[in-house]
Automatic annotation (TrEMBL):
Quaternary structure and interacting proteins, as annotated: Homodimer.
Pfam families: Glycos_trans_3N, Glycos_transf_3, PYNP_C
Full protein name: thymidine phosphorylase
The enzyme's E.C. designation: 2.4.2.4
Family stated for the protein in its record: Belongs to the thymidine/pyrimidine-nucleoside phosphorylase family.
GO cellular component: a single term: cytosol
PROSITE patterns per record: THYMID_PHOSPHORYLASE
Alphabetic keyword roster: Glycosyltransferase, Transferase
Naturally occurring in which organism (per UniProt): Rhodothermus marinus
SUPFAM superfamilies: Nucleoside phosphorylase/phosphoribosyltransferase catalytic domain, Nucleoside phosphorylase/phosphoribosyltransferase N-terminal domain, Pyrimidine nucleoside phosphorylase C-terminal domain
EC category: transferase
Organismal lineage: Bacteria, Pseudomonadati, Rhodothermota, Rhodothermia, Rhodothermales
Record's catalysed reaction(s): thymidine + phosphate = 2-deoxy-alpha-D-ribose 1-phosphate + thymine
Keyword Transferase: yes
InterPro entries referenced in this protein's UniProt entry, alphabetically: Glycosyl_Trfase_fam3 (IPR000312), Glycosyl_Trfase_fam3_N_dom (IPR017459), Glycosyl_Trfase_fam3_N_dom_sf (IPR036320), Nuc_phospho_transferase (IPR035902), PYNP-like_C_sf (IPR036566), PYNP_C (IPR013102), Pyrmidine_PPas_bac/euk (IPR018090), Pyrmidine_PPase_CS (IPR017872)
Amino acid sequence: MPEAVTLIIKKRDGGSLQPEEMRWLVEAYTWGKVPDYQMSAFLMAAFLRGLSDAEMDALTQAMLHSGQVLDLSDIPGRKVDKHSTGGVGDKVSLILAPLVAACGVPVPMISGRGLGHTGGTLDKLESIPGLRTDLSIAAFRRQLRTCGVVMIGQTDEIAPADRKLYALRDVTGTVESIPLIAASILSKKLAEGADALVFDVKCGRGAFMQREADARRLAETLVGIAVRAGKSAVAWLTDMNVPLGRAVGNWPEVVESLRCLKGDSAGIEDVLEVTLVLAGEMLWLGGVAPTPAAGREQARQALMKGWAFERFCAMVQAQGGDVRLLEHPERRPGAEPAGDVFAPEMAQGYVADLDARAVGRLAVRLGAGRRVKEEAVDPTAGLVLHRKPGDLVAPGDVLATLYTQQRDQLETFRQELLAAYRFGATPPAPRTLLLDRYAEGRWAK
Ligand code: URA
């Protein structure tokens, strides 16, 4: 049995751990035989020195096998899931998962909560009154079989090593490491039993990877680990400099998703574009479309015919949510707006820019996210943007509507949002939303 200190020194000095050494370290840490202080030292050494592909694979496998690994082979069809690295206003999973299921590809999805200034799918789903995301593994399997789509949170049985390691990384300055992030994500995604994975790697101000080079490396790393683990995988690099869609916050994003699910994407064409491109990949990987482009068209048709909305309602019902609100979201109690934000005198012409990170931080302060881990989120808090980059604007126009219980701070919130906007006399250059695609070892749209 190796000694933890020997492995720490090996990594510190630029060496590579053998797979069995990595496995031993992760297992010993998970079972409390290696203390936090030694694991912290190892994580920092890994952060500074990096990990080889073999080390990343061994770390991922060790974290994966610290808990249950689902075998869904008794459920017909190729199961496909998608993972986003996190953004502001990114409600794509809510539309995508039922859409792909409605087209015949089962979607087993284990999602996370909001992290920092970014939102999380679980918090969004739980803003639907009654909806539960803490299903047992047995209920998860049952619903996947009957409904074709299920969206839950990480349970104690899924990758417990990641839970422990992530909490340690959070307080030891070792989160922003591409190999550690990739191993953490894949340990959970490989556990859920999907045959193929699509990654939406966000890039820009509102993303964890702000530089394109880092986002590309993360995409390559995620796909690389998945493929070496025997899964098919594709990654898209998508822009996250400006919030996706117009709603930011849990219930506001559900309301916007419902509009898209019902076939109305006016003003939220960016949400539709990302959703359809990812749906195309999932239908292709799931074996029901001959190419990603054909899959995109199939998904567009299904959305227009209302199949995705029907499937979303079935999923919400199966998970205990109040389906009546899906037809009439305006009836949800507690969702009254707190106030509007108006364009200032100098706003003559166009919205030139809007900082996604600043908007995400404001959403957290409005109550939509957590400043500390234990904090509860306010399901209805958030904002809806009526003016985004490229839109015409004049003084006094309503830029946004704010939703918050903290009405005494409304003026401060208004100023914070105004500081995230820039205005100009001419329209800004159009943004490229879908930056690049990575599959089979190469980048090509
Ligand atoms: N999300 C994860 O699941 N793990 C990380 O390390 C970062 C983001």
